[in-house]
Fold these 2 entries.
Entry 1:
Amino acid sequence: MGSFFSGIMLGLSLIVAIGAQNVWVLSQCMSGANRLVIALVCIFCDALLIILGVFAANEIKLLMPSLIPWLTYAGVMILLYIAFGSAMRAIKGSSGLKINESKAKNWKVTAIAALAICLLNPHVYLDTVVLLGSLGALQPSPAYFAAGACVASVFWFGSLTAFAPKLRVLLSSPTRWRIFDSIMATILIFMAIQLWTMA
């Protein structure tokens, strides 16, 4: 179960750390644009890439064990890079999340847009395939780790669907947004240290 909870913690910290993909998801969900469709597409893409990354890295671990430490160090650098971005946003501040009211769109159009955002973003592959994959290969049970990371995705995007109106009020405040980024930077640094000690 330790692998399962590690998957939840790392998966959630990466998903919640705001990047181009999640800014789009947040803004779309908070403006009411087919929130359920966006959540389902993002969960499906996350789960697919997480499973691919974890089990591909586990095969690499079995076939070429000397490569795993280098993947792990790459994962540490990615975590620190994302943490640095969150920390800089927290220090500099911003005007909060900008939400534009969106007109109702056909759910198929929304689904295609969500697929493009999920699968054409290089950071998604770094986070799920490389980072989660390399860490998952180090776990006693990679399958439980992958399951935990998938649960984190379901929790995050499910929460966006359910609580989008309240999040809109919460994250429109620059001060709250800076606190949010500070928490994310702290979690990511902690996970980078944990990953480094496992290498």
Entry 2:
Amino acid sequence: MRILLVEDDRRVSAVMTSMLQRRGYEVEHAATATAALAAAPCDLVLLDLNLPDGDGVDVCRQLRARSEHLGIIAVTARGEERDRVTGLRVGADDYVVKPFSMAELQARIEALLRRTVRQAPPREVVETGPLRLDLAARTVHVDDAPVVLTRKEFDVLASLARQPGVALSRERILLDVWQTTWSGKHTLEVHVASLRNKLGRPELVETVRGVGYRLRTE
């Protein structure tokens, strides 16, 4: 999950970048409005409204005009009601007033991602190679033999099966299955290892280096 942090205070940006990276996010920092608008595409923007070369409200408006699906959280010292209303009206999805705790910001990020993550249309049955997954009945067969999975193992497999052949990030799968992107260090890896073992065909769940996992379609 890629976050663009727009913050001109170097001390604040350094602390936020470090803490976000520790939570598994990829972070790009922009200290100015110009840099923010020139940044590469991302999943979510944490936007300070007080910038040295422009008003963050204008940046928010332009970012929203580019994409209606981009997550934007205004993170600012402007705490007056009129500022909140303005920020939300020009396109911010949420508004956090400084000072704030990282626990609160994390919760708001997760809530926003749950609302903005766009999934492919649900499929009742997914068949790929020897694997047959019935999402409604929550059953799994490999080479026509039933496979018994725990609830979380099935949910991990279902997350991948909804978009077979597509590499899903670790954070995306955690959000789908655990409704958070911040879990135990090896939670997902342990479940994937157990899932591969039970399927008896470990190659079905591929590791995509630097990204996450993918369900093979061949």
